[in-house]
Amino acid sequence: MTDHGHLPPSEEQQRGAPLETIAASLRRERARAGLSLTELARKAGIAKSTLSQLESATGNPSVETLWALGVALDVQFSRLVEPPRPQVRVIRSGEGPRVFAERANYACTLLASCPPGMQRDLYQVVAQPGAPRRSDPHIRGVVEHITLCTGRALVGPTEDPAELFPGDYICYPGDVPHIFEALEPDTRAVEISEHP
């Protein structure tokens, strides 16, 4: 990408978003929670029409919408976006199930979800300077671990983020408002989200 301003995801970028997987996961988790479409939309703070589109694989889900739905359903983000896993999995750079932020040039790729009996998900983050990625609190007890690979970023609780350089690591509670703000083009990080 040569223009590092906020741009909507291109058709090529959208191919990385697992729309059918998200749709099936939302229907499965909503049924498990015993919630109607209206109840889940209200609980997540999104429009019922948006949820209906997502469940029919015609919507364009953002990171914010999927996190809100995960919190409302009390499930990890990865349970909504991960396709079935093979035994050995290689994800090449630029591939994998990606979702994009609404108000920041920020893409999140799920690299590995939490296997049974474990409580963590692994992500690759790519962000550009501009509007920061502001996250609402996730489910209670979530802890986020981030190692910056390239670039420079402000990361951590919204009230007191730390400036990170390549190789730096930060750990902070994910159940409080937090931020990821790229300060250089093509800032990349690896994120581990730990769940209770």
Short description:
By secondary structure, the chain is α+β, with helices and mostly antiparallel strands. It has helices at residues 11-14, 19-33, 37-44, 48-55, 63-73, 78-81; strands at 98-100, 106-112, 120-127, 133-135, 143-150, 153-157, 162-164, 169-173, 178-182, 187-194. It is globular and about 45 Å long.
What does this structure look like?
With 196 residues, the protein is of the alpha+beta class. Helix content is 26%, strand content 28%. Helix 3 crosses helix 5. The N terminus is likely disordered.
Keywords:
196 residues; four-stranded antiparallel β-sheet; six-stranded antiparallel β-sheet; single chain; 28% strand; alpha+beta
Layout of helices and strands, plus pairs?
Layout: H1 11-14, H2 19-33, H3 37-44, H4 48-55, H5 63-73, H6 78-81, E1 98-100, E2 106-112, E3 120-127, E4 133-135, E5 143-150, E6 153-157, E7 162-164, E8 169-173, E9 178-182, E10 187-194
Antiparallel strand pairs: 1-2, 2-3, 3-10, 4-9, 5-8, 5-10, 6-7, 6-9
Helix pairs in contact: 3-4, 3-5
